[in-house]
Q: What sequence folds into this?
């Protein structure tokens, strides 16, 4: 329960979670936490840059390269439709890749850290 | 009967539509009554006890997100403008990756009930909470208005209610039902309504998709060809981008602006963020976003087929002539395919959609008012959980009444613009502060206030002086301007774009940086450390309420 979060807390704690004051600072400064933070950011930042750039490219192509997007591929299916559908595909792929990475790499690391520094609570 | 004739009259059997919709209302009300807890504390009323599973919340997220604007609006835009309508759905979908990668889990780990919980976590409580509460209320209000205004047009088409008074009456019924759901069921009941509605919507759309495809031998190229032929002279441009936004360099820039607002707005929508608190842990929050992405993605692929199907089978002319204009594409297609019964089902689903989304928005706004503004800003956190919920219930009634009045006044307004506006404000006023407070240690109170107020104000000012409000060239057929002020002689616009995102989003990110660096305030290191550790490890996160 977040009794340290903002002064008087009107709601009684629903679970027996407590933590010694000041412990968060120690954890935050520890090399283990630094490593966890780096693992997380090294995955989500490049991935976010990638999908945002790919989406922006698609929007710009749709606005300024209409001839290119209008290239006929099969029958009435044009390149623009295929690139649009690829946006769906890439979204599904990134979602799946992230889910696997989080389940296999990140969650165990976060749980391990929480265990080693004796942080109680829902440590994923 | 030809589609042209159909559109001029009421389609289907209003009695059937009303009957199916009434059945939905009765069933969902019974469920809401059964699941609701009589003595609801804050965790129960705002977060449904945090007991929903990831998949359940994922379906509910899809239900919240697939509003009338995205179901009816996108199918209609594809039917009328082809490819340009499809662009909307891509922005709406890709936006979920921002929520998945950067926001959902960290937010679940650090907040309790509202978006402002996270924004004010390590900054000065009262000013930041007041700012975040205000932007929550404004975004939610525009979103709410769009849904209520959409209800009016739908009523005209589906129930054969043509008079403004009659439509106003139906809008009032929608509002009263929504208040009932929220008061009786709280977040738990509202979530179940969303789940049922999302399931009906996706199944209904799937049936229509298979039906349309079967008519064209499951050959998509043939379907596209048929919609081009049906459209006549303007047909060929349906397959390529540009039909709606390619007119001038200004409209092109407008689309870029809209595209930015769509992709960055979702992760700043308070009613989406609040859903992450209904699950027991960050892992379940992650699962719920994954479910939502799959469901929403598949649904938007459906709307592509439905839109071109409506274009091919009903035709853009008949759709544009129908009472609800673009919004009537999907219902008209349903009638063309399955007659009165399918139309009745799709109509009921469309109403259920409006009802459920409006209930979700109401609970978000009332939670933010009671928890952020009333308890933490005005009463400095001294109100009990029960007292807060009492205020939230009263707020829900007040918001319901405001929504009814606003919906009646906004009846006939362009709902797509209201939704796009909500996204632009969410992306400008909320997202920079969410991202910086989660990822930038140095970020401080002044940065947050600059960004929230700067984003809000710049959006509202640019919208007020945009062509959306005044000064669009008059339609030669009617002599009326498509702007909010339909009188073409009223023209005070000086900002050229319909959507302000391209200016306001970079501006509010910049303001956050300037505000932060110009203040020596460094937010307490201890709080920053706590937020960082909690957000990543889940230590100290809010627990689910034990089932009872």
A:
């Amino acid at each position: 329960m977040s009794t340290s979060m903002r002064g008087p807390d009107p709601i009684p704690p629903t679970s027996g979670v407590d933590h010694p004051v000041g412990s968060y600072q120690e954890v935050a400064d520890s090399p283990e936490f630094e490593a966890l933070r780096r693992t997380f950011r090294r995955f989500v930042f490049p991935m976010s840059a990638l999908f945002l750039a790919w989406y922006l490219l698609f929007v710009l192509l749709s606005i300024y390269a209409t001839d290119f997007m209008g290239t006929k591929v099969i029958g009435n299916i044009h390149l623009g439709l295929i690139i649009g559908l690829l946006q769906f595909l890439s979204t599904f792929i990134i979602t799946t890749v992230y889910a696997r990475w989080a389940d296999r790499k990140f969650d165990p690391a976060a749980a391990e850290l929480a265990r080693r520094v004796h942080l109680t609570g829902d440590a994923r | 009967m030809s589609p042209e004739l159909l559109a001029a009259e009421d389609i289907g059997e209003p009695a059937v539509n009303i009957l199916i919709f009434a059945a939905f209302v009765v069933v969902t009300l019974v469920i809401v009554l059964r699941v609701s807890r009589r003595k609801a504390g804050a965790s129960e009323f705002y977060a449904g006890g945090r007991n929903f599973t990831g998949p359940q919340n994922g379906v509910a997220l899809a239900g919240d997100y697939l509003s009338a604007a995205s179901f009816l609006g996108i199918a209609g835009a594809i039917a009328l403008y082809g490819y340009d309508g499809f662009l909307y759905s891509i922005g709406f979908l890709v936006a979920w990756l921002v929520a998945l990668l950067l926001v959902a889990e960290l937010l679940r780990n650090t907040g309790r009930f509202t978006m402002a919980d996270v924004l004010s976590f390590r900054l000065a409580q009262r000013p930041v909470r007041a700012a975040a509460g205000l932007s929550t209320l404004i975004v939610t209000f525009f979103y709410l208005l769009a849904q209520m205004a959409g209800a009016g047009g739908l009523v005209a088409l589906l129930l054969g209610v043509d008079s403004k008074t009659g439509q106003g009456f139906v809008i009032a019924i929608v509002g009263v039902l929504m208040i009932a759901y929220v008061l009786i069921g709280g977040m738990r009941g509202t979530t179940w309504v969303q789940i049922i509605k999302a399931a009906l919507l996706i199944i209904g759309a799937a049936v229509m998709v298979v039906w349309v495809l079967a008519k064209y031998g499951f050959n998509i190229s043939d379907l596209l060809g048929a919609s081009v032929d049906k459209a006549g002279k303007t047909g060929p441009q349906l397959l390529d981008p540009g039909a709606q936004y390619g007119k001038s360099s200004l409209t092109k820039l407008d689309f870029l602006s809209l595209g930015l607002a769509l992709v960055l707005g979702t992760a700043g929508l308070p009613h989406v963020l609040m859903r992450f608190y209904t699950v027991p842990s960050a892992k379940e929050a992650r699962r719920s976003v994954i479910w939502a992405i799959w469901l929403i993605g598949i649904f938007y692929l459906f709307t592509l087929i439905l839109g071109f199907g409506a274009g091919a089978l009903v035709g853009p002319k008949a759709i544009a002539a129908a009472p609800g204009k673009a919004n009537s594409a999907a219902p008209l297609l349903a009638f063309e395919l399955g007659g009165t019964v399918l139309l009745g089902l799709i109509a009921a689903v469309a109403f259920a959609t409006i009802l459920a989304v409006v209930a979700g928005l109401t609970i978000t706004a009332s939670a933010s008012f009671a928890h952020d503004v009333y308890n933490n800003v005005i009463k400095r956190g001294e109100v009990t959980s029960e007292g807060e919920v009492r205020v939230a219930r009263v707020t829900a009634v007040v918001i319901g009444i405001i929504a009814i009045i606003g919906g009646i006044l906004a009846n006939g307004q362009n709902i797509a613009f209201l939704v796009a506006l909500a996204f632009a404000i969410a992306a400008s006023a909320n997202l920079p502060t969410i991202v910086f407070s989660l990822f930038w240690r140095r970020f401080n109170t002044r940065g947050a206030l600059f960004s929230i107020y700067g984003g809000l104000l710049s959006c509202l000012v640019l919208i007020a002086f945009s062509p959306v409000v005044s000064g669009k060239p008059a339609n030669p057929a009617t002599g009326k301007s498509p702007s909010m002020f339909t009188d073409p002689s009223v023209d005070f616009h000086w900002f050229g774009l319909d959507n302000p995102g391209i200016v306001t989003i970079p501006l509010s990110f910049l303001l956050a940086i300037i505000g932060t660096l110009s203040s020596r305030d460094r937010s307490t290191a201890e709080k920053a450390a706590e937020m960082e550790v909690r957000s990543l490890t889940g230590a100290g996160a809010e627990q689910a309420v034990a089932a009872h």
